[in-house]
Amino acid sequence: MPVPFEEVLASMPPDSQARIAEAAARLKAAHRTFLELQATDTAYRETPEFRARLAALPEEYRVELLRQEAGRAGIDRLRKQVEALGGKLRITAEFPGGGTMVIDED
């Protein structure tokens, strides 16, 4: 029989409960920021504030925003053209610190 999450959480030590609550709060804040950035207009996306908020998000949120931006930039059309020629389009962002992130891969 399944055990409700609340019961499992209540049986944990207080320090574990606190860590879980902190992690949940961070995830909720990141998701709120993601939704705010997702709804911004094009002009705001060019500002240092937008880039700073984007950089502070967990990678999965950054990748999703960049995928959405790529779609708006006409990448979907380019993908269809590449696929019509028998190829696959893969977009990878390379950052100054040496990090990379796959933005769009189908």
Structural overview:
- It is elongated, with a radius of gyration of 19 Å.
- It starts with a helix and ends with a strand.
- The protein is mainly alpha-helical and 106 residues long.
- Helix content is 60%, strand content 10%.
- It contains five helices and two strands.
- The protein has a two-stranded antiparallel sheet.
The N- to C-terminal Cα distance equals 40 Å
Q: Helix proportion of residues, in percent?
A: 55-70%
The stretches of 5 or more residues where confidence is low (pLDDT under 50) are: none
Strand order, largest beta sheet: 1-2
List the helices and strands and how they pair.
Layout: H1 5-10, H2 14-38, H3 48-56, H4 59-72, H5 75-84, E1 90-94, E2 100-105
Antiparallel strand pairs: 1-2
Helix pairs in contact: 2-3, 2-4
Which key phrases capture this entry?
106 residues, mainly alpha, two-stranded antiparallel sheet, 5 helices, 60% helix
How would you sum up this structure in a few lines?
The protein is mostly helical and 106 residues long.
